UniProtKB/TrEMBL annotation:
E.C. code: 3.2.2.23, 4.2.99.18
Protein name from the UniProt record: Formamidopyrimidine-DNA glycosylase
Domain FPG-type: 232-266
Signal peptide stretch: none
Key word ATP-binding present: no
Family membership: Belongs to the FPG family.
Example GO biological process: base-excision repair
Domain Formamidopyrimidine-DNA glycosylase catalytic: 2-130
Recorded superkingdom: Bacteria
UniProt keyword annotations, A-Z: DNA damage, DNA repair, DNA-binding, Glycosidase, Hydrolase, Lyase, Metal-binding, Multifunctional enzyme, Zinc, Zinc-finger
Catalytic reactions of this protein: Hydrolysis of DNA containing ring-opened 7-methylguanine residues, releasing 2,6-diamino-4-hydroxy-5-(N-methyl)formamidopyrimidine
InterPro entries noted in UniProt: FPG_cat (IPR012319), FPG_N (IPR035937), H2TH_FPG (IPR015886), Ribosomal_uS13-like_H2TH (IPR010979), Znf_DNA_glyclase/AP_lyase (IPR000214), Znf_FPG/IleRS (IPR010663)
Species whose genome carries this gene: Brevibacterium marinum
Length: 281
């Protein structure tokens, strides 16, 4: 799923491309992507795009009096077209969820690969009408030290869970929480309340800040590959840690997995992989 650095890259790209342009048409490719009915989606036809912004991991396209809130799912992304394809959009066929046509002839798609369709688009007069936006915690790159400390100290969860909780800290997902904990030399299973908050916050800012600087000038089609090249542990199970040389390990859950370095983060110990444990019984 796109996280703070990638969505900031999309925001930067779209601001330069679409602000001041007008919507001519919006085509739905996957009915489940649209989460609101009033106002109808065609209400944006003819409107000028006044801005593009981000809240947490959500991309927001702004108009005068309306906002299109786009929340990417795990396999979701934005595809830019200098010239929008002219063929008809076939409902439920392929990854296309929503296609936006602009007066300039350009446009963009919100897409989602795979069979599970969890991406969400909401057209609202105020972004706070979208519960995920209304409940979003402070942004991970601007959260104050006291807010970050309170989020950790007041939790009974593991530190990875807290970093990914969008109501506590907005913008961090599975990939960057793995990267942050690796850089901080913390086990993903460490109790959040016992973590030294100021030091971890500095690492959060360093990891996300460096990623953002790398990605923010790139076009959408290059962002995901550039992100992957920067990752040290996430998605690299079985490979060598670039810091200590240990073999990167994984813990699998029902719908996702996390990666970590036993050498850097857990004193050489392997964390229990509960899915594999069940298979071995």
């Amino acid at each position: 799923m796109p996280e703070l650095p990638e969505v900031d890259a999309l925001v930067s790209f779209l601001r330069a491309k679409v602000v001041g342009d007008f919507i001519t048409r919006a085509d739905i490719g996957e009915l489940s992507i649209l989460k609101t009915a009033d106002p109808p989606l065609d209400a944006i036809s003819g409107l000028e795009i006044s801005g593009v912004s981000r809240v947490g991991k959500a991309l927001i396209v702004e108009f005068d009096g309306l906002e299109l809130v786009c929340r990417f799912a795990r396999a979701g992304w934005l595809v830019w077209h200098d010239v929008v394809p002219t063929g008809p959009v076939k409902m439920g066929k392929g990854p296309l969820g929503l296609r936006i046509h602009l007066a300039s002839g350009a446009g963009f798609d919100l897409s989602e690969a795979g069979t599970k369709k969890n991406a969400a688009v909401s057209l609202v007069s105020d972004r706070a009408e979208v519960p995920a936006i209304d409940k979003a915690g402070p942004d991970a790159l601007s959260i104050e030290a006291d807010e970050f400390t309170s989020a950790l100290a007041g939790s009974t969860s593991r530190i990875k869970t807290v970093l990914e909780d969008q109501e506590l800290i907005a913008g961090i997902g599975n990939a960057y929480s793995d990267e942050i904990l690796h850089a901080a030399k913390l086990s993903p299973f460490a109790p959040a309340s016992g973590v030294e908050a100021p030091a971890l916050l500095e690492t959060v800012r360093e990891v996300l800040g460096r990623a953002r600087e790398t990605l923010v000038e790139l076009p959408p089609e290059k962002v995901k590959a550039a992100k992957k090249r920067r990752l040290r542990v996430h998605g690299r199970t079985g490979k060598t840690c670039p810091v200590c040389g240990a073999t990167i390990a994984e813990v699998s859950f029902a719908d996702k997995s996390l990666q970590y370095c036993p050498g850097c983060q857990t004193g050489g110990k392997k964390l229990s992989d509960r899915r594999m444990d069940r298979l071995l019984k």
